[in-house]
Design a protein that fits this description.
By secondary structure, the chain is mainly α. The protein contains six helices and no strands.
Amino acid sequence: MLEDLLEGAGRSIVFGLVGIGLMAVGFLLIDLLTPGKLRDLIWVEKNPNAALLLAANQVGIALIVFTAIFTSYNDFVEGLLSTVIFGLLGIAVMAVAFLVLDWMTPGKLGEVICTPERHPGALVSAASHFGAALIVCACIA
C-alpha cells in the first residue's frame, strides 16, 4: 500500500512538471500572438483582455493535460506520451484558432487584446481557445 502511494506521488510530480511545462509553452504562445510583453500587459498594465485570453489558454491546457492523464493513467509511459503529444497538439490548435479568428474579424486581434479597455473580442478569443481545448479533449481516447 505504501509502495502504491509513493508510486502515485512520483507520477503526480512527473505529470505536474509536464503540465506546468505545457502551460509555460501556452504562455509563450499568447506572448507571441499579442504585441508587447504579456507579463507587462497583465501584471504591470493590468490589462483585462490579455488576462482573459491567457486564463482561457491556461485552463484549456490544464483540461487537456487532465484528460490525457485520466484516460491513460494505467500505463505511466503511455499517459506521459499522451499528455505531451495532446498538450502540444492542443497548443497548436489554439494558435490556429486564434489566427483563423484574427483572419475572420476586422483589425488585428492581437492589438484588440492589448487595448486597455475591456473588449468583446477578447471574450470571443478566449472562448475560441477554450473551445479548441475541448475539441482536443474529445479526441483523446
